[in-house]
C-alpha cells in the first residue's frame, strides 16, 4: 500500500470516512476495482512516484491525480512489504479468480469426483489469497502452509461429501426442499473450510503475535514530519508483537470470509432453482450455465466490498485490551494500531 512508499509525510487514509461502514465500503470498492489490474509496470511506477511526491512534501495537496495513483498503489502493493501482490491473489482480481471456481462448485447435479475437484481447487485458491494478503510481520513457513492447506481441503471435502450423503436421506422433506438443500451444500463446505483456512494459514501470527504501533495524533504526525523531514522513508517503530492483536486480526478476517461467501454461495443457487422451474429455462437448458455465471458475477461484484468493509484493515484498539506490556505505550486516546490483513 501507499504507506510503504518513501517519504515522511503521512498520507490521508482515504477520501472516505473509514470510521463508518459505508465509508469503508466505498474504500473497499476502490481496492477491489478490477480496472487496476490493467495498469502496466510503468503505470505502477508512475503512480508510486506521484504518491511519494506528496509524502516527500513536493506536492502540497492531494490532487485527483494523486488520489488515482494511491488507488492503484493500494490495490497492488502489500501494506507490510511494499511489494506487488501476485495478480491472481489481489483483492482487485478476487471476483474474476473466484468466478469459474464458484460456478464449478455450484453446478447442479455435481457428482462425487466433481465435488472433490472443485473443493480442492477452491481451497488452493483460498490458500494463495490468504498467504498473499496476510500480515507479513510474522512470515509463514512452507511446512505451515502445506499443513494448513491439507487440513482445509480435508475439511471442505468432508463437509461437502457428508452433507451430500445426508440430505437425500431426509425423508420428511419434499423433493424441492431436498434439491434446495443440496444446492446449499457448497456454501456450508466453503464457509466452514474458508474460516478454518484463515486460522490455519495465519495461525503463526496468533502464536507469535503481530506488530502493533502507537496511534499518532495530528500534532504528533506534524512533529514527526517536521523532525524527520530530511530522513527519507522513516517509519513509526513497532511497539512489539501482540498475540491478542493477532487473534483479533485473524478472527475478523475469517468472519469477513464467511460474510463474503454467504451471498455468493446462497443467492445464485436459490435463484437458479426458481429459474429452472420457469418455462423459458426449461425450453433452453443450455442457458443454465450462462445464467449461473451471470448470477455469481453480479452477486460477487456487490458482495466483496460489503464483506471487506465489515472491519477496518488498519485496526485501532485500546492498548489496555492487549497484553500488559502495551498498556502504557498507547498513542492518541491510549490506542495502538495494526494491519489486520485482508
Global Rg: 22 Å
How would you write the strand order of the largest sheet?
2-1-4-3
Report the mean per-residue pLDDT as an integer: 85
Structural class: mainly alpha
Distance N terminus to C terminus? Answer: 12 Å
By DSSP, the count of extended strands is: 4
Topology order in helix (H) and strand (E) letters: HHHHHHHHEHEHHHEE
Please work out how many helical segments DSSP would assign: 12
The proportion of residues forming helix, as a percent range, comes to 55-70%
- Give the biggest sheet: 4 strands, antiparallel
Low-confidence region ranges: none
Architecture blueprint of SSEs:
Elements: H1 21-31, H2 41-55, H3 64-76, H4 94-105, H5 112-133, H6 142-166, H7 175-201, H8 203-208, E1 210-214, H9 218-227, E2 240-242, H10 243-275, H11 279-283, H12 288-308, E3 314-318, E4 335-339
Membrane topology: Multi-pass membrane protein
Keywords: Amino-acid transport, Membrane, Mitochondrion, Transmembrane, Transmembrane helix, Transport
Subcellular location: Mitochondrion membrane
